[in-house]
Amino acid sequence: MNSLGATGVPVSALSFGAAGIGNLYTEVTDEQAYEAVGAAWTSGIRYFDTAPHYGLGLSERRLGAALRDLPRARYTVSTKVGRLLEPADAGGDDRADGFAVSATHRRVWDFSADGVRRSLDASLERLGLDRVDVVYLHDPDDHAEQAFREGFPALADLRSQGVVRAIGVGMNQTRMLTRFVRETDVDVVLCAGRYTLLDHDALTELLPAAQARGTSVVIGGAFNSGLLADPRPGATYDYAVASGELLDRALRLKEIAGRHGTTLRAAALAFPAAHPAVVSVLAGARSADEVRDCAERFAEPVPPDFWRELRTEGLLPDTAPVPDTKPLPVTEPHPSPDQGGTPGSAAPSSRVGGRKSRT
């Protein structure tokens, strides 16, 4: 297990991103969501990340329900602040924001101190937990002044009071994350999609700054929202259909991986984990099969010749650290019987207010 900065908050090298069980793109049943979390637990994953944004709170409700009977001291949960959910009567669905749920609420941007506290209180209620371990400011791209002036100090107060153990910022860009690392005492940053086999942007400033300051980095979007998991026409890159140029690069990476006896998915997960500033790779999954595949690929050694060929072909910077031949363990082995049960053996509807939860 790694830990976040100097906080001692443990995170598994491979972690579970819960956007998928919030009906990202398409619907997932309560049972499928519950089984996905169960597969993560039995695979040794002990860090779970969610947010109010994911399915208008559905992800938080489902994740909390699946974790509720597990030993609380054995796992780490993070959620995010910056978007308050307010009831709405507009009808329709939330597909414009990427989630197949009814639009019963609307998102309201709020990085004020009051907004941070209200958001966290609402998240705890949806999760059904008495605490979360990590809280991130979520996508403050267009709200930098308020995030730095109010949002971050509010999180720092919560940390000093012991309400949360670690605080961070999660974004799809590196410039503002680097500023947070350099100008605040943030414990961790969650960088999505900017340190992958196709995008090395974080290598320029963010990762060196984090390493110098002792700030932990969690890498999300290792598959760039799908293209590196299954490169094919129509595959998505950063939540939009990938361009022909990107698809060609991904297919080239896949061909090289196959020639060296490995898989593109294994290489995509292994690459960000090799940087010394990175403590966990966050893999989004919507089913037990996807979780098990990620865990198996993460444990799959990637031959050194694969990385050498990528550098020779100009597909990987010479400055990018690459894994050694020994793969990282996901985390600890399967729990023993006295360490709590495993999600997935009971229907989730009994743990979400006794009914199917849709939003």
Brief rundown of the structure:
This protein has helices at about 30-40, 60-65, 115-125, 145-160, 175-185, 205-215, 245-260, 265-275, 290-300, 305-310; strands at about 1-5, 10, 15, 45-50, 75-80, 85, 95, 100, 105-110, 135-140, 165-170, 190, 215-220, 235, 240, 280-285.
What features would you highlight for this structure?
359 residues, 8-stranded parallel beta barrel, two-stranded antiparallel sheet, single chain, disordered C terminus, alpha/beta
Could you explain the architecture of this structure?
This protein is α/β, with parallel strands linked by helices and 359 residues long. Helix content is 33%, strand content 19%. The strands form 5 sheets. It has an 8-stranded parallel β-barrel with strand order 3-4-5-10-11-12-13-16, surrounded by 6 helices. A two-stranded antiparallel ribbon has the order 1-2. A two-stranded antiparallel sheet has the order 6-9. β1 (2-4) and β2 (9-11) form a beta hairpin. α1 (30-42) packs across α2 and α1 (30-42) packs parallel to α9. The longest helix is centred in the middle third of the chain and has 17 residues, at 144-160. The radius of gyration is 19 Å and the shape is globular.
